[in-house]
Design goal:
- There is one protein chain.
- 42% of the residues lie in helices and 18% in strands.
- It is built from eight helices and ten strands.
- Strands 2, 3, 5 and 6 form a four-stranded antiparallel beta sheet that branches. Strands 7, 8, 9 and 10 form a four-stranded antiparallel beta sheet that branches.
- The chain is rod-shaped.
- The termini are far apart.
Length: 322
């Protein structure tokens, strides 16, 4: 289905004024009540109003898809006052679909009823779809909760209306499917021996550390799926990322343990360096001569002091080591 733009039908004002003139002349003919003139005037009075359903007003960033007896006629996309075939009907299967997206939130029933006629128009504005959070297993099998916000707009109105049943619901479902396909490739956090790029080489990609790359891949995946629906995906962003509640506490303990181990390793490395520096300083300046046993005792004491969690409690030795 190819989109047809009906941009040369901006003659709504002329047709509206013509209808008023016809009514004025017809009323004048009815007043004089002559046989032929009365019949012609009565005919125009009864039929001229049929022109008015063909008058269409298009606001900026709006479009109206028109069909005539089941055949696609074209699309009104540019702002203006148009006149089309009065028997044309507008089509928008997603007019009453309400998703968690901009333009669909905070709509009261009364406002929807008043704007029911206008909802047949298709918005060409940039919309943001905030899909529901999903529970998905990452590449290691850990259940996580993730949510995305997709920025999109209608690019081809004919494809959006005729190629899919409901382009809003179609987009929402494809976002869910694409999100699952991409998330299952990555671990939540950096893990060894995991290939996220598909080149056969393990890398450090993760959902938490490579959010920009993951979002770009999700956006490309969604775009491929909705191309035939005439939709353009501008951007996809991760709005929520966390372990599922059933394993969140365990994973938190694991992260805390890893952090403690890393901190201890850094402390021990620093302490060993300080002990080595102290021994070299004492030997270089010949402050004191230590045999191997005293060096071992000194190293032990320094490591205990430097690696301990609490402040050292010194004990003064008034005797001898022997």
């Amino acid at each position: 289905m190819t989109e047809k733009n009906l941009n040369k039908k901006k003659n709504g004002i002329a047709v509206l004024l013509l209808s008023f003139v016809i009514y004025a002349v017809s009323i004048y003919g009815l007043i004089y009540k002559s046989g032929v003139l009365f019949g012609i005037s009565l005919f125009f009075v009864c039929t001229t109003w049929l022109l008015w359903p063909g008058l269409k007003v298009i606001q900026p960033q709006e479009a109206l898809v028109l069909t005539l007896f089941g055949k696609y006629v074209g699309t009104l996309k540019e702002p203006g006052f148009y006149f089309v075939n009065p028997f044309c009907s507008s089509v928008n299967p997603a007019s009453r679909t309400r998703l968690r997206q901009s333009g669909d939130l905070n709509k009261e029933a009364a406002q929807m009823a008043v704007a029911a006629a206008a909802t047949k128009k298709i918005s060409l504005k940039i919309m943001t779809l905030d899909n529901n959070r999903q529970k998905i297993n990452d590449c290691l099998g850990n259940p996580i909760e993730i949510g995305i916000a997709v920025t999109w707009k209608v690019h081809d109105t004919a494809k959006a209306v005729f190629n899919v049943d409901n382009y809003k619901e179609f987009l929402s479902l494809q976002c869910d499917s694409a999100l699952r396909n991409i998330v299952r490739i990555y671990p939540y956090d950096i893990a060894p021996n995991v290939d996220t790029t598909g080149d056969g080489v393990a890398d450090e990609g993760s959902l938490r550390g490579s959010s920009e790359i993951v979002a770009a891949r999700i956006r490309d995946e969604i775009q491929q799926r909705v191309q035939e629906a005439g939709l353009e995906i501008i951007e996809a962003r991760i709005t929520h990322l966390a372990y599922a509640p059933e394993i969140a506490a365990v994973m938190l303990q694991r992260q805390q343990a890893a952090a403690v181990i890393d901190a201890r390793k850094m402390i021990v490395d620093g302490a060993v360096g300080m002990v080595e520096m102290a021994l070299e300083y004492l030997n270089a300046h010949e402050v004191i001569t230590l045999d191997e046993e005293r060096k071992a005792a000194m190293v032990s004491n320094l490591l205990v002091v430097l690696c301990g969690n609490h402040d050292a409690q010194p004990i003064v030795n008034s005797g001898t080591l022997y």
